[in-house]
Amino acid sequence: MRAGGKARALRPPAPAGAEAERGPRALPLPENLVLLGEFGRPHGLAGEIRLKSHTGDPKAIASYGPLTGADGRTYLVRHARQASGGQPDLLVVRVEGVATREAAEALNRLRLYAPRDKLGEPEEDEFFLADLVGLRAEGPDGPLGRVVAVPDYGGGDLLEIALPGRRRTALLPFTRDFVPEVDVAGGRLAIAPPEGWLDEDDDER
Predict the structure, then answer these.
(1) d(CA 175, CA 136)
(2) How far apart are CA 127 and CA 129, in angstroms?
């Protein structure tokens, strides 16, 4: 791992030159695509839309040119700015050809991808966000759950892990101490959660 004991979920930098439960229908996509972001709810009446960005500089998602949507269409993101609320990876953007609230609403929960070869190779202890989502989270005594997201609320990357039998997901810092091993090829990562991490019964709260 890197000095300081941190691994990083690689949010792709600015370029040098699963199907959502709701929203547009997802189609089969080429395997070489990497998830860069996901549209959210409309913002205002003129076609602006919220966008959760997974790039290193969140606004850099507008620099990649046309992106491939989970519906198989291409989308050009423009005029990105940070949304209110202080969450660094949440933006408000305009999309070429989207000029009404109704058109923006139709994109809610649509994921956006770019070809892997446009992103370069990740360095040691860096991992593309899309490669972490879906991995089995295994503790010292065996499987605990599955990674469903890698959010960043301003304090660094977190693994959001869905746990069998629990309605709520659990968050774990994505650091060397808590995630000593990541095996993307094997579809798993080893976690060492802090004592008491699963003691609370969220379903009774």
Answers:
(1) 17
(2) 6
If residue 102 lies in a helix (H) or strand (E), which one and from where to where?
helix 101-105
* Burial of 196 (C-beta count, 10 Å sphere; 0-12/13-18/19+): exposed
Asked if 105 and 42 touch (Cβ cutoff 8 Å), the reply is yes
pLDDT tens digits, one per residue of 125-161: 778 777 888 899 999 888 999 999 888 777 788 899 9
User: Confidence band (pLDDT; 50, 70, 90) for 2?
Assistant: very low
Confidence class of residue 5 from pLDDT cuts 50, 70 and 90?
Answer: low
What angle (nearest 5°) sits at the alpha carbon of residue 110, between those of residues 106 and 113? 140
Amino acid at site 102? E
Distance between CA atoms of residues 110 and 22, nearest Å: 9
Going by C-alpha positions, the residue among 89, 101, 97 that lies closest to residue 37 is 89
Cβ(76)–Cβ(70) below 8 Å: no
Query: 174-181: long-range contacts (C-beta < 8 A, 24 or more apart)?
Result: 174/6, 174/7, 174/8, 174/9, 174/150, 175/5, 175/6, 175/7, 176/1, 176/2, 176/5, 176/6, 176/7, 177/5, 179/7
- Separation between Cα atoms, residue 123 and residue 119, nearest integer Å: 12
pTM of the model: 0.64
